[in-house]
Amino acid sequence: MVWASAKNTPITNQTVRVEDGFLRSKGLGAELIAPLSLVLDDLGIYYDPSRSSRLEELIRMRALLRPDQKERSERLITALKTTKLSKYNVGHTELVDLPAGQRIFVPGQVEDDASIPTGTKAISTNLELLSAARSAHPDAIILYKPHPDVESGLRKGEVSDEDLKSLCNVVLRKTDPITAIEAVGEVWTMTSLLGFEALLRDKKVTCLGTPFYAGWGLTTDLGAVAARRSLQISLESLVHATLIDYPRYFDPISKLACPVEVVLERLATDTLPNPGPFNRITAKLQGVFAGYAHLWRR
Predict the structure, then answer these.
(1) Which residue from 3, 10, 43, 90 has the fewest beta carbons nearer than 10 Å?
(2) Distance in angstroms (rounded) separating the CA atoms of residues 271 and 252
(3) Are 82 and 139 in contact (CB under 8 A)?
């Protein structure tokens, strides 16, 4: 397998952290669907704001874009809006009879995900996130979407039905997150990538933690943001660093490295190999043992 290396991102240290990219797949990693993008970081990792990461360095470097770079970012933003692509691209796309009024989308997260202990302090559970959003907006229509890995029973982060009933108006189960974003005016999140995807769609984003897109003048930040992120940048600069420079992409058709635009096209046209029966069987076995995940996720 060959992955495209991001330009101007030399890997200098021996320790390199690897994570899924932000335009990942059609299907969940928890269901063993292979990624179409990865990020490799020799400085830190994007979800840990306690120190700088290669993504942070790229964001600062792209603060002033050349005309061709700005145009490429704009085309990418337009394509993402048009195709309604997100990280995993799962869920149904119909929302029926949503209540009228000020709508706020609160995406649930996996509570044992590494971005929670590193990226947020005061608010670190989905229940606390929902409570904070409701406290700040007592009369708003709050739409809550459980994280798909939690909904599938594979990860931690479930909120009780009683708490959901008291804190939100609508629970969006197995719903495409972009459809939810498009139905609201604002998103409240801890560190979810959906905050970044909401920025792409011109939505107001409030962060209770410190995701990679916080602190650059594009979000309302209620979490602690390091002074090194005091630079004000454009959305196009953030997109260039985050989706063009930082990840490495793999084309499952040609089996070669590729730019982000090729992966976007594969996802948009659904020209992707189908997972085999072994993949489905293994994913189901993983679900059986999900309740014991605490034994190996420490």
Answers:
(1) 10
(2) 9
(3) no
Judge residue 279's burial from the number of C-beta atoms within 10 Å of its C-beta, 0-12 exposed, 13-18 middle, 19 or more buried.
middle
pLDDT digits (tens, 9 = 90+) for 69-109: 999 999 999 999 999 999 988 878 788 789 999 999 999 99
User: How far apart, in whole angstroms, are the C-alpha atoms of residue 196 and residue 75?
Assistant: 17
Phi/psi at 92 (5° precision): -80, 160
Residue 20 in tokens: 């899924």
Kindly report the number of other CB atoms within 10 A of residue 5's CB atom: 12
Residues in Cβ contact with 231 at an 8 Å cutoff, skipping those fewer than 6 apart: 59, 60, 63, 216, 217
In this prediction, residues 208-216 reach a mean pLDDT of 97
C-alpha to C-alpha distance for 298 and 280, rounded to whole angstroms:
26
Cα dihedral angle (269, 173, 283, 297), rounded to 10 degrees? 120
Please state, in angstroms and rounded to a whole number, the distance separating the CA atoms of residues 157 and 174.
Answer: 15
Which SS3 state, helix, strand or coil, does residue 174 take? coil
CA dist., res. 115 & res. 214, Å (int): 13
Cα 6 from chain centroid (whole Å):
19
Q: Give the three-class secondary structure for 218.
A: coil
DSSP string covering 64-123: S--HHHHHHHHHHHHHHHHHT--SS--SB----SPPSS-EEEEE---TTSTHHHHH-SS-
pTM here? 0.86
Q: What are the tens digits of pLDDT across the range 109-154?
A: 988 888 999 999 889 999 999 999 999 999 999 999 998 777 777 6
- CB neighbours of residue 252 within 10 Å: 16
